[in-house]
Amino acid sequence: ATCGHGCKYGECMGPNKCKCFPGFTGKTCNQDLNECGLKPRPCEHRCMNTHGSYKCYCLNGYMIMPDGTCASSRTCAMVNCQYGCEEVKGQVRCLCPSGGLQLGPNGRTCIDIDECSTGKAVCSYNRRCVNTFGSFYCKCQLGYELKYTSGRYNCVDVNECVTNTHRCSLHAECLNTQGSFQCKCKQGYRGSGFDCA
């Protein structure tokens, strides 16, 4: 079994056939599966899709039970939580459906934690952090693209001179560099490389 494009979140089962791990989809298993859109719906009340998974939470006035169902709770209704609540030793506490969210100053609504600016997120070399509501993901740096090479996914340099995505003058030569490019005016011309006269 060989899969030329690789199986990012899955296993190669036959010639270019991937079997995706739960929570992922696509020919190369590189796309997140939105479990919240599946029938039957995985959550009783509300659903939040996450990378490779999902989280269930309840409508206001209900609390999430250990089995993931929602039970009516008078105390929860009184607290008026955004994403349901839990009762611990008689104390009512509002919940947030993801580790990338935290309770706001009012103790009822959830606010996003920007993992990229707090330094909680660690992206490997050549990747930059992109914050999302409740989470984050790592994306290739500008000038690089995700490619499947030597058995794994890597961010490789885009050769702007070959892909013709440079802005060099017609009278300039394009020189590819790591993550970028340079323009040099041809012999007999002078200028910045973007403008040559």
Automatic annotation (TrEMBL):
It holds the Pfam family EGF_CA. This is EGFL6 protein. Residues 112-150, 157-195 form the EGF-like domain. It is found in: Secreted, Extracellular space, Extracellular matrix. The keyword Glycoprotein applies. Belongs to the nephronectin family. Keywords: Calcium, Cell adhesion, Developmental protein, Differentiation, Disulfide bond, EGF-like domain, Extracellular matrix, Glycoprotein, Repeat, Secreted, Signal. Its main location: secreted. GO terms for biological process: cell adhesion; cell differentiation. InterPro entries: EGF, EGF-like_Ca-bd_dom, EGF-type_Asp/Asn_hydroxyl_site, EGF_Ca-bd_CS, Growth_fac_rcpt_cys_sf, Nephronectin_domain, NOTCH1_EGF-like. GO terms for molecular function: calcium ion binding. SUPFAM superfamilies: EGF/Laminin, Growth factor receptor domain. Gene3D superfamilies: Laminin. The keyword Repeat applies.
